[in-house]
Amino acid sequence: MLLEIYTPEQKVFEGQVDSATFPGSKGSFQVLNNHAPLISTLEKGTVVYKNKKEETEIMIIGGVVEVMNNKVILLAEEIIEEE
Questions:
Q1: I want to staple 48 with a disulfide (CB 3.0 to 4.6 A). Which of 11, 21, 37, 76 is the partner?
Q2: How many helices and strands in the chain, by DSSP H and E?
Q3: Total structural domains in the chain?
């Protein structure tokens, strides 16, 4: 499925992933290929997305995610850079 991650300033990531886990307002949840459509608000936490080669983690401070037709769009308020 296609994952796109945006902040107000820039596109952070665009690519094919096998799964993505998000810090939902009522607990974390995972999205896989052919997931049912949904829109959810997100809390501060870790977003994890995986493909066959690697797993990537990013910290966000809130946002919104939309899932539809194997396309996932994450609009993050801010991404916390690791030091």
A1: 21
A2: 0, 10
A3: 1
Reported as a single tens digit per residue, the pLDDT across 46-77 is: 999 999 989 999 999 999 999 999 999 999 99
Distance CA 9, CA 26 (A): 27
Residue 78, φ and ψ in degrees, nearest 5: -160, 150
Cα Rg of the chain, angstroms: 12
CA distance 49 to 35: 15
CATH code at position 69: 2.60.15.10
pLDDT category at 41 given cuts 50, 70, 90 is very high
